[in-house]
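Re-run with default settings, no changes from the original entry. Doing this only to confirm the output is reproducible before filing.
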Amino acid sequence: MQILDALTNMARTGRLGPVFSGAGWSDVTAALGEPWDIGAMSRNRRWPRLFAYGDLELSVCRCRKVSLICVQTWRDIVRLPSSLVGGTDTFPAGLKHTDVVSALDEAGCSWAPYPPLTFGNQCSLVAIPTGAHFTFEIPAGEEPVLNVMGLPGDGHDCSAQPTGRDH
């Protein structure tokens, strides 16, 4: 599988294997193993936390549900769990805007420009089926290059009560 296949499939389905907004954290770790724990997303609370499997980053709520998903593509090489992308775990980065748009079109995944994330030296588009965002950096005099692809949260309003260890 190529990186554009994985990203396009995510944009169409809102999933990358067992990873999707609202997925149970125990299901994700059962399938993928233990991630790298990047840390709390707030200095004052232990949850939500940011975890990573290579360049696949997941925000996990205190109720242990995946709340946000993104794939960092700004590095020279993109690393994703091999079990999710058909055996290889590294991909060349530097995906051009025209290549991403062509892949979405070929997959029948409708998209539109996304003005709220288009400003300065970046532009963005949204995949209509899932609300996935593709945000591109625009190097001076060059075609936009994909910086990050993200799936939106599920609108989850956590009802789990914080415990002493959540703070």
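The chain has one domain: 3-155. The mean pLDDT is 86.
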